[in-house]
Prior knowledge:
The protein has 324 residues and is an alpha/beta fold. The protein has helices at 19-28, 44-56, 70-75, 92-100, 117-130, 144-152, 170-185, 281-289, 303-315, and strands spanning 10-15, 35-40, 64-67, 82-85, 106-109, 134-136, 160-165, 190-197, 201-202, 209-210, 213-219, 223-229, 239-243, 247-252, 257-262, 267-271.
Amino acid sequence: KYVVIKMNKQKIVIIGLGGIARRHIQAIFNLKIEYEIIGYDINKESIENTKQFLKNENIHIKNLEMIESYDNTINKIDSKTIVIIATSADVRKQIIEDVISKNPKAIITEKPFTQNIEDYNKIIELSKTNKIPIYLNFRRHYYKLYMQIKSILNTKENVNINIQIKKRGFACTGIHFIELATWLLDAKNYEIQYSETFEPYEQKRKGFFDFSANMIIKFDDMHEVQINFDNEEKEKIEFVEINLKNEIYKIFDFKEKYLVIDNKLNIKEKDFVIMHVSMITDETIMEILENKKPKMPNIEESFLSHKILFEIMKENGLDELNIT
């Protein structure tokens, strides 16, 4: 005789149905398990845009429900649900508190995680108390190139990192590179040796702002990280340059190219693959379901990068800025 085990569908709740949420759904479509998706947005237009996106991408999900009721969405969460929060940062704390009250299996969310350090600390305590892991969508943890560099990097030796970025927001884009540095260096402490910020500008999403910045940060009293933003609309070459003892990695992060320069100045040019959200959410979900440590960092691991963001904002009189 055989015992038939009925597998329930994995419930995935997505709160906020903007562009990032649609890429999460695109990745979920690659799952090899049975699943159902409940998507929520207060804006009916976002729901219609999501439906059109899925049609355009030829993504047909049988068990997909999209609703406009926040309370109904929260009440559909149970202890086996994985919740993805893809909203703006201003409402994220309240949403996470509501979600945690339903005791989900795990939460995946966007960055910046909160708008200030106080809210960040409150959510860390809530996560620990309720034993609900919260993961932040820092996708460079899934790049094989950065995983390779981290595996050979000796943090007992001085490592200098130089990052050059076009006119992009520090809260939205720059924090990816701060977090990348803290992860690669396994950083525990930091000192902001220099920072300057430029005039904040309104983002495409009305009422939200971001800013460019330059900074020099010393990690663990030995590693130096410099980040320079171009505050003008110029065709600037963007790169991440990681200086190790015997070689330099110069990574053109948005071009999928990198150089390896040895101490004899021999140069090798290589390609690498950018891992988009649409390529990693399914992997993160399976890591969670299989009780593996996800590559995606949790909120404790990403705390240092946010602390640096909030400190630079405060140093430069931007701590009240409505970032998202």
